[in-house]
Write a structure and sequence with these properties.
Shape: elongated
Number of helices: 4
Structural class: alpha+beta
Distance between the termini: 20 Å
Order of helices and strands: HEHEEEEEHH
Strand content: 35-45%
Helix content: 10-25%
Number of strands: 6
Strand order of the largest sheet: 5-1-2-3-4-6
Length: 250
């Protein structure tokens, strides 16, 4: 078992060292150059992309009225400029302003005391010395005391404010008409790249006349805001420290 663990640790350390070396070489080669922006690509072909499958109602057949310019189920007589098909673009407005404050305090104390004696029992208490050691005192056979206490305090004070706007592309139209969207935005300032990712499912009815939608109207919303670059790199612990924190049990 020890040999197996040692071999696993050696393999992990070797892989971490090789990955760290490759990363170090890339970083050395990029000295003096700003972080590269990711190329524009089809979101459905990116690694990790998975088509969305949601419970769908029974499909409804479109009925056309004879001698009529109106089609049943249409949202407008003229062409709707809002996103509705794969490849269409809509604007997502992100306005997150969350705050939470929780204080908890717990205190518990318990004291127990038990005692038992047999000073008189039909005169048989004098015979206990024949069964039990001579040091046994019938007047104090059993005496037990327990005492326990616990106290705990916890508090949460969190505030988040994010105001962003990003354009998203319709990547899939579900059978019930809902749209699956995904948008990515990268902004480079000096040697730091800020990344914004938004994805989820929206209803066509929630899209405004200006082709915008709020992040609160996106189902299964996935919103990520982060970055990469020199500042982000300095704020992260070294690879060796991260590996040490993972493998050390103490």
């Amino acid at each position: 078992m020890f040999i197996r663990r040692f071999v696993g640790f050696a393999v992990t350390a070797t892989l971490a060292a090789s990955l760290g070396a490759c990363s170090a070489i890339d970083r050395v080669a990029g000295i003096g150059s700003p972080p590269a922006l990711a190329p524009i690509s089809n979101p459905t072909s990116s690694a990790g992309y998975r088509p969305v499958s949601m419970p769908m109602p029974a499909p409804e057949q479109v009925v056309y009225e004879p001698n009529s310019l109106w089609r049943s189920g249409s949202r407008a007589f003229f062409r709707d400029q809002r996103a509705a098909r794969i490849g269409d673009i809509m604007t997502v407005i992100i306005n997150i302003s969350d705050s939470a404050k929780v204080n908890n305090a717990t205190k518990r104390t318990r004291t127990n005391s038990e005692s038992a004696a047999l000073p008189n029992f039909f005169g048989l208490e004098s015979q206990l010395s024949k069964v039990l050691p001579e040091a046994v005192d019938p007047a104090a056979l059993v005496e037990a005391e327990t005492e326990g206490s616990s106290a705990g305090n916890g508090s949460v004070d969190r505030k988040e404010t994010v105001e962003l706007t990003v354009a998203a592309v319709v990547t899939q139209v579900l059978p019930n008409g809902n749209l699956v969207i995904e948008g990515r935005q990268e902004v480079r300032v000096n040697f730091e790249v800020r990344e914004l990712l938004v994805a989820g499912i929206v209803r066509p009815e929630d899209i405004s006349s200006t082709n915008t939608i709020l992040h609160t109207q996106i189902a299964e919303a996935r919103i990520s805001y982060g970055g990469r670059g020199q500042i982000t790199d300095v704020q992260q612990p070294r690879y060796g420290q991260q590996l040490y924190d993972v493998i050390m049990p103490f």
